[in-house]
Design brief:
By secondary structure, the protein is α+β, with helices and mostly antiparallel strands. It contains one helix and nine strands, in the order αβββββββββ. The strands form two sheets. Strands 1-3-4-5-6 form a five-stranded antiparallel β-sheet, with helices on one face.
Length: 162
């Protein structure tokens, strides 16, 4: 009698399953690393983008303002900045987890919902006869968790009236 061998032996099946398991493990590891890298990039970029936007907006508004109402005297530090621009009051308020701008157009949040804002301070500098300047300082923390924790960055700058 002659038997023909069709199919796989048990040893061949175990070997193939071992190779397949190894390949699946490597592909899963690469995919998990790519997802971790993406979430770290999102966390970092949202903090830096929001910080840059807020500083640029403050610079734009402070340099075109005709006066600073709050903080009212040199050396005073508050979490609110009130400017008069073309006769319209612009109020920046840093209470809570966001920085808001209120004027005749309504209220808008300056940082995105992907970041929390804290430790906001506006400090007025200058003398009574000179141009006044405002030192701005705040901390932004991303809401996306990285492997090393949450992305946090401190932003500080000084802007003056023209």
């Amino acid at each position: 009698m002659h038997f023909s061998r069709k199919g796989f032996t048990l040893v061949e099946l175990v070997l193939y399953m071992g190779i397949l398991t190894g390949l699946l493990f490597m592909i899963t590891s690469i995919f998990a690393s790519a997802i971790d890298l993406q979430s770290e990039t999102i966390a970092s970029s949202s903090v830096h983008e929001d910080g840059s936007y807020i500083l640029n907006r403050l610079q734009y508004d402070i340099t075109r303002a005709s006066s600073i109402t709050t903080p009212s005297i040199a050396g005073q530090q508050t979490n609110t900045l009130v400017l008069i621009i073309n006769g319209i009051t612009h109020t920046f308020n840093g209470s809570g987890a966001s920085l808001t701008l209120t004027n005749t157009n309504g209220t808008m949040q300056l940082n995105s919902y992907e970041t929390d804002l804290s430790n906001v301070s506006f400090t007025r500098y200058g003398n009574t006869n000179g141009k006044h300047t405002v030192k701005v300082s705040f901390i932004l923390t991303g809401k996306t968790r990285k492997n090393t924790g949450f992305e946090t960055n401190t932003f500080t700058s000084t802007f003056g009236l023209r």
